[in-house]
Amino acid sequence: MSTDITTFTGWAATSAGAPLERFSYDPGLLGDEDVEVAVEFCGVCHSDQSLIDNEWGISKYPFIPGHEVVGSIVRVGAQVHALKVGQRVGIGWFNGSCMHCTSCMGGSHHLCGTAKPIIIGSHGGFADRVRSHWAWTLPIPDGIDPAAAGPLFCAGSTVFNPLVEFNIKPTDRVGVVGIGGLGHLALRFLNAWGCEVTALTSSLSKQDEAKRLGAHKVVASTDSDAVKAIAGTLDFLLITANANLDWTAMIGTLRAKGRLNFVGIVPSAIPVHVFDLIPQQKTLSASPVGSPSSTATMLEFCARHQIVPQVEYFPMSRVNEAIDHLRSGKARYRVVLDASK
Q1: Is the peptide bond prior to 62 cis by the omega test (within 30 degrees of 0)?
Q2: Could you give the domains of the chain?
Q3: pTM of full prediction above 0.90
Q4: Which among 128, 310, 281 has a CA at the least distance from the CA of 213?
Q5: Where are the alpha helices (DSSP H) in 19-131?
Q6: Collapsing DSSP states into helix, strand and coil, what is residue 284?
């Protein structure tokens, strides 16, 4: 395959909720600080579905989804020195940031006010090639299966980031609400981190699987008595589910100085009384996908502990079937497209 091509081809959303269609575009000149990656695998995330369906009201069509990209570098810009042609790399939610604001200069590129999501205003990884700024293009360590690595760059980074940001300790008791694409990785990370892990799920049919993934205890998140039974026991509670819950009860599971942190996009406003927080100095927070540095640390952690997402594979040519599978709620727990098929 020639490394210098002028047209990229992928599968694009052309209107809200419509099946993806083959689409080609001219990516323009390669930027001096950019790299071009031949896509080998790409995860299918709920955020892809949200943008395809315009659930957030910001989608502009046509666009090619896909922000959990794994592939090999085929071209580098004139000012790229840290990466080389032939390296296998991954790209996540962002593919660029300003590189000069306080956040970027402080290592928090993911908090840059002008950080560029790869599938908002540009085209993503349901394609033969993508481009990204070199800082957002991360080498995949030896020991991580590249076929399963894609979801680490979004789901993995999102649930790993709070462990670093909020200084979660190996001695902490931690709860994870929602055992899905995000939650199943959170269980694996926290178990390997050394924490005592409680899984809270609306489906107790997942009890055995949650324990296999790393939970020491499993609690029904919709059973008020079961949630009350763990009141005051958790140092940290990670909300990965996109669901409305009894937030007073969830806050009640925390110990003094405990933190409840959102990474899932819950559908409604969160009713919270300040007196549920003040007496024991509890905290509510939320966090996005991690910085390039945090994500690179996560990749090293995964390689050391042999952690990969639990994935199901679809050929890229059957991308619409893969999205329907995700929409149905049947994915266990991430879907990955194989670009060679």
Answers
A1: yes
A2: 8-154+309-338 (3.90.180.10), 157-286 (3.40.50.720)
A3: yes
A4: 310
A5: 46-52, 102-105
A6: strand
